[in-house]
Amino acid sequence: MKRIRTGALLAGALCVLTVVPAGAVGVLDVAGAGIWATVSTVQDVLGRDGVNAAPPVQDEQSIGFVGLEKTVRANNPTIQGFEKTLASIQNTNLDAQFLQQEFQYQAQYGQYKIEYDAYNEFINALGDSQDATVRAQIAMATKLRALAASGMDTMNKMLDGLDQAQEEAEDQLEDTYDSTKRQLDNTANQIVIGAQSAYIGIITTQEGIATLDRNLAALDRQITVVEKQAEIGMVSQLTLDNLRQTRRATAAQRETLTLMQATTENQLSLLCGNTAATTVKPTALPTVTDTQLSDMNYEEDLKQALDNSYAIWSAQEQAREASNQYEDGQSSTVDAYEAAKLNLEYAEESAENTFRQLYLDVQDKKRLLDEAKAAYDMEKKNFDVDALQYERGMISQLDYLTAQDDLAAKQDAVNTAERDLFTAYNTYDWAKRGYMAGGAV
Description:
By secondary structure, this protein is mostly helical. It contains 13 helices and 2 strands.
């Protein structure tokens, strides 16, 4: 015969709290019709504009995981700002800048030419005069004419070098765009991953609330029994009080999860580009298919991950910069270059090691899911026996309801294993795109 134990129920409730997403902080809203009914009553007493008036009810939007990334990338204000930054770099008009520079050089050349012609005319006009004063003026004019000629030559060289300078500037602008894009894309990926983590966290919290609801129902049943037992002296009042306290603690934990769910939903809504007047409600998580798992190829996926790795790219950029600044005989540049090469080697080794662990984690989560499903199947057989015995009057309703709870707990384990597998697979997929768990590796 299966019986509910108070300690086990409390332990189960405590376990639920361990799966709440770490990012769920602060309380922005309260969800649940029952809670809002209570708030409405308080508002009636205090007045709608009273000091303790509750926040306005938010609009709700449903969102699925598959379309989440697209929504965040399209509507998140930070990512939109990134796009404008890239557009401003891309729209930089170097042709106009260098055309203006060409006009300036030509104007300066023209000024030098006017001065050169004037001094030359002055020298020619004085002719072969032997007057000492005139000869001094000719000498000064000759020097000034030489300076004007030098200025003209300089402007000609500047004009001749404009094409090469513009080509170098265009290359530098392209490098700036590519570098900025890689950095902003990496930050945008972090925002999307944060939204996905919040989404998964909400699903986790919802399942935790459902578990606590089941525990509360079981506690209510047990309290009813123990109250009868206390009336006839079979158990002490202290036993009943402890059981009631367990229920109060479980109810408080449920309230905490409810508030955390509302907070995370609001955070996710903001990441999706909504205002504070709107909250989002996740639907469900996708299921990792056998085809997706069988398509995993460690060697091919690793190459893709290393090619896309942001950290490796960043280390390569540092090494390239150090190489450009490298000068033989200068210890500071030599040390910087050697350090950059070592950092690049470490980034490559770290990325490969991290990716291997992510690959193995997916396999492990699949194994745990298979075990959870097997355990559920066995529990389902036990429940079918209990259900038949209940129909025949061989066990009590309490025992039958307990058997239902045991089966639901096994289903919870399957749900958790499915969620863990999806999270592991999603993390692995992000690694192939260049972003690995624990940072931009």
